[in-house]
Amino acid sequence: MSRIPEVIVVVGAQWGDEGKGKEVDYQAETADLVIRANGGANAGHTVENHLGKFAMHLIPVGILNPDADNLIGNGVGLSLTASLKEHADLKKRGVSTERLYISSKAQLTFPYHQTIDGLQEERRDTSKIGTTGTGNGPTYMDKAERSGIRAGVLRDRKRAMDLLHEVLKGKTALYYPNGGAPDTFNPEYYEKLIREACEVFGEKVINPTPFLAIHFSKGSRILVEGAHGALLDIDNGTYPFVTSSSCTVGGVLNAAEIPPSLLTSAIGVFKAFSTRVGEGPFVTELDDDSAEELRKKGDEYGTTTGRPRRIGWFDAVASRYSQQINHFNHVVISKLDTLIGISPQLCDEYALGNTVLRDFPSDSETLAKCIPVYREGNYFPKLEGDISGMQHWNDLPENVQRYAIALVRSIGDNFQSITIGTGSRREDRITFK
Question: Per the CATH hierarchy, to which homologous superfamily does domain 107-204 belong?
Fold first, then answer.
């Protein structure tokens, strides 16, 4: 008789970089299966636990749990160069990859996608999106155009090379009709990469449907880790300054091939302040010394690119919108410890000319014209006291409690649990209901 599985989804609730890695690592410790659902090598999780500190990019964080299966899901743009390096790095550090699997439906990202990514960003001139240049966008373009190459070909080296010849012939005609194509448009450029990828990953490529069915029937605890953040979602984010996959709870469930009816917990991770990477409107952005102070204190640099993140105060308007499109039943407030010694502000509303907005605009043009409206007066005094590693709510200083409660209430209510982050380690957390 089949048992009912437990399905937990962890999603970044802002523009990414909210500290999802820590929450995913915490949940993965007791998971039977961990699925990386979406995004490509342009995303990353920073994890710090008893094994050390890891920067994860494509391989699920559950690989650090020797008792868990790990699946790179259908919705991932799998860079072969990045994943091979990550796989090798993990093995060098003594992490077993025996229980790593790759969905045959995942899209493959090649260096020619990176070339195209650079060409597209260059041609945008004054309307740049600020991509990471990892080829993520062109990979999903090929997927939508139905000209992409999926991971299933890694089981057949000849088939993989035949497809590359076919695809690159068309790409060369489109992007370099007059000649001068770079080496990344030459099929022979990929012979070594394909050979290595087939040797390392070939036997790990599986049909995900029966694999998942077994976990469903066993009543497994399944963790789905989302990449990026909900406000970068291709459909619901600040378009066109978004990523190329769906980053909401519903989107990552579909990308992981899990029926929505099986969802048990939707966990939204919010940072206690706001950050953003790349271009696009950012209403609460700071451009003074406080931004640099927060950036340094919070080590706010991209896990994948190392780029300094744009810094701003907590945006409740954007956060309420994220809650509306995801309906999280569990909320995590990360990096509260970063604000110690700082007098934080909270943006409750936007001003648009003579109009006050409490709802998030549906287009980036309007959003770019909005001005933040902060709580009046010195509502939040400087947060005092060392809270690093605290694990009990009553131990937090009163002014820190006050700010944490204000953040959560500004997002929504009726959450089943609330977790406050008090440090970078897995156990640096306070959870209450």
Answer: Adenylosuccinate Synthetase, subunit A, domain 2 (1.10.300.10)
Rounded CA-CA distance 289/86 in Å is 36
Tokens representing 172 are 């060369």
Q: Which residues contact 321 (CB under 8 A, 6 or more apart)?
A: 231, 359, 360
Per residue in 302-333, pLDDT (tens digit) is: 766 678 999 999 999 999 999 999 999 999 99
The predicted-structure confidence for 20-59, as pLDDT tens digits, reads as follows 999 999 999 999 999 999 999 988 788 888 899 999 999 9
CA–CA distance, 287 with 292 (Å, rounded to integer) = 8
In degrees rounded to 5, what are phi and psi of residue 5?
Answer: -75, 160
> What is the reported pLDDT for 334?
95
Q: How far apart are CA 155 and CA 124, in angstroms?
A: 38
CATH 1.10.300.10 in the chain is located at 107-204
Alpha helices in 256-390 (DSSP H): 289-297, 316-326, 364-367
Query: How large is the C-alpha radius of gyration of the chain?
Result: 22
CA distances from 237 to 217, 240, 363 (A): 35, 8, 9
Q: Is 165 a catalytic residue?
A: no
Each residue's pLDDT tens digit, 158-177: 999 999 999 999 999 999 99
Q: What would the DSSP string read from start to end of 325-358?
A: HH--SEEEEE-GGGGTTS---EEEEEEETTEEE-
* Residue closest to 20 by CA, chosen among 70, 56, 53: 56
Count Cβ atoms within 10 A of the Cβ of residue 281 and give its class: 0-12 exposed, 13-18 middle, 19 or more buried. middle
Catalytic residue among 17, 25, 117, 337: 17
Asked about 337 being catalytic, the answer comes back as no
The per-residue pLDDT for range 102-157, each reduced to its tens digit, is: 999 999 999 999 999 989 887 776 666 667 778 899 999 999 999 999 999 999 99
CATH 3.30.1490.20 is the classification of domain 6-104+207-432: no
Number of Cβ within 10 Å of residue 309's Cβ equals 21
Q: Among 161, 219, 217, which Cα is nearest to 191's? A: 161
Question: Could you tell me the pTM of the whole model?
Answer: 0.94
Q: Which of 45, 87, 113, 228 is catalytic?
A: 45
